[in-house]
Design goal:
This protein is mainly α. The chain has one domain. The chain is built from 9 helices and 2 strands, in the order H-H-H-H-H-H-H-E-E-H-H.
Length: 219
């Protein structure tokens, strides 16, 4: 159980896919203008990453080495289809906002990378921990990023049609925060905070953390 928790926690901060490994950034920066879209994207990634990790790990001894990547893509695409149809049926407004980024989860290098680097080389229980940990790490960062950008960039946070939080009237909202330059600026601060936390708690640098993850997954 201790090993399971250690693998899960690693995806939250030590080897966070966004702030440390720097993978899956395109979708993150594109949909983090609204908390609503960021939260559903985070949940979608947790589901797809968690479920695909279970299947990949379960059949790892049955899949020939030469065809493992196409098999991974088919598995991931199956769960992405479930997410896509579910969102379209129950949250159509969020579905329209996320647009092409939902089907593009299939080729998100974070999902495929974890299947190749970890799930394919580890038992199911650890693959589940890695999938949920990495997915949760992704979701936390993208929601925090969206919260800052939407609140301070537009002056309010709207979730499923309801106004959850507003800044005082007359607040001069800097529109740059909802544009890509603002996304990079805010994301840079989050990366710096994560690096500071990792150095303080583990003594590991960002480069060392990413390197160790590749080595551990490849064994």
């Amino acid at each position: 159980m201790r090993e399971w928790i250690a693998v899960f926690k690693r995806g939250i901060a030590i080897d966070n896919p966004l702030t440390v490994l720097m993978i899956g950034l395109c979708a993150t920066l594109a949909v983090s203008t609204k908390v609503e879209g960021a939260l559903f994207m985070g949940l979608a990634v947790i589901f797809v990453l968690g479920m695909s990790s279970v299947i990949v790990s379960s059949i790892r001894h049955l899949v020939p080495e030469k065809v493992r990547i196409p098999v991974f893509i088919v598995i991931i695409a199956s769960f992405v289809t479930i997410v896509d149809l579910t969102m379209k049926a129950f949250v159509p407004d969020v579905y329209d906002f996320l647009g092409v980024w939902i089907p593009l989860i299939v080729v998100n290098c974070m999902i495929l990378g974890r299947a190749e680097a970890f799930s394919y080389h580890n038992p199911v229980r650890l693959a589940v921990a890695d999938g949920l940990g990495m997915g949760s790490g992704f979701a936390i960062v993208i929601v925090v990023l969206a919260f800052i950008r939407e609140l301070f960039g537009s002056g309010e946070i709207v979730f499923l049609g309801a106004n959850l939080l507003s800044l005082p009237d007359g607040y001069p909202a800097p529109g740059i925060l909802v544009l890509f330059p603002g996304a990079f600026i805010v994301f840079g601060f989050i990366v710096a905070l994560t690096a500071w936390y990792n150095r303080r708690t583990t003594g590991r640098t960002v480069e060392t953390s990413a390197h160790c993850t590749i080595e551990e997954g490849g064994r």
